[in-house]
Write a structure and sequence with these properties.
By secondary structure, the protein is of the alpha/beta class. 40% of the residues lie in helices and 12% in strands.
Length: 300
């Protein structure tokens, strides 16, 4: 597998290096990993009845949705359960997962052509999560400046804006990611996919949890759904990590987890200038105008 090396720098020389193969983009610090082997293992990963695959672009609410789904499908007292770290197939060893006898909640940032073939072929359930791209961009900015694998690069905002829009980050372009899903859904009507919007979870969480559990064919009482929504709010999930109840590998230079930040909608308004917002709206018009994933069309 041939990888192209990409240097990402702002006007002050701050930045990081990436490696790219086809649509795959990763931190150059991961170059030593056996990526071809990992990709092959993901593609050949065997489906177990009840497996759930959660697919998302980075910083769209992956950890939040993972916990909501985990609590929805796991019986027992919500109060006594701890929040969990998502099982990101892209990077974790898969051999232990293959030995798990019960169904699994799995995560990936890969596009559909890299996902487990058996899961797709057998109609396994897939939830695709999306978010307002402006908020996803802001969240990614803070992630990069704390992420050791990207040199904790505090890039200038204007430069990061261009980098994000052009997809010069791990996992590539937000627009290409979701456009590839839309193309797959149009070409294969048999795909068992539910689309979930971060914003809908924020504004009408109970309604969305009912929709998700109907898709997953599980049945939680209204009271338990309320408990799950409360247990999985950002403040409580962050507290689980801050108190050491749940371990996080994502830590800043002071040793504090940066897994969760605000988890809000509309924070982009505190970062975008009028000019940047106009520029982004033009990009949105060009790359994402009629997309089913566009936050502009979340009225339903």
């Amino acid at each position: 597998m041939e990888w192209e090396r990409i240097e990402v720098r702002d006007e002050n020389g701050v930045g990081f290096d990436l490696i790219q193969h086809e649509e795959l983009i990763l931190p150059a610090t991961l170059q030593h990993m056996e990526h071809e082997k990992q990709l092959k293992m993901i593609r050949e990963f065997k489906y177990k009845k009840g497996d759930i695959l959660l697919c998302s672009y980075p910083k769209t609410g992956t950890h939040w949705l993972s916990n909501l789904v985990y609590f929805l499908v796991t019986p027992g007292s919500v109060e006594s359960m701890k929040t969990v770290q998502p099982t990101l197939m892209d990077l974790v060893p898969l051999e232990p997962l293959e030995k798990v006898e019960h169904s699994r909640v799995l995560n990936s940032h890969h596009r559909i052509n890299r996902l487990p073939f058996d899961h797709l072929e057998q109609g396994g359930k897939i939830i695709v999560l999306t978010r307002d791209p402006k908020d996803a961009m802001v969240s990614y900015k803070y992630h990069v400046q704390n992420f050791e694998m990207l040199n904790r690069s505090n890039l200038s905002w204007n430069n990061f804006f261009d980098i994000w829009v052009n997809g010069k980050l791990p996992c590539g372009s937000f627009f290409d990611y979701y456009n590839s899903w839309e193309k797959a859904l149009k070409e294969n009507k048999e795909l068992n996919v539910l689309i979930v919007h971060f914003e809908h979870l924020k504004t009408n969480g109970l309604k969305e949890l009912r929709r998700i559990q109907d898709f997953l064919e599980v049945n939680n009482t209204e009271e338990r759904l309320k408990e799950i929504l409360d247990k999985c709010n950002v403040t409580k999930m962050k507290a689980d990590i801050d108190t050491g109840e749940v371990e996080s590998l994502l830590k800043d230079s002071d040793g504090k987890s940066f897994l969760y930040r605000k988890g809000e909608s509309g924070d982009w308004k505190n970062h975008f200038t009028v000019a940047l917002n106009e520029h982004f709206d033009n990009v949105l018009e060009e790359r994402f105008k009629d997309s089913i994933f566009n936050a502009e069309f979340l009225a339903g």
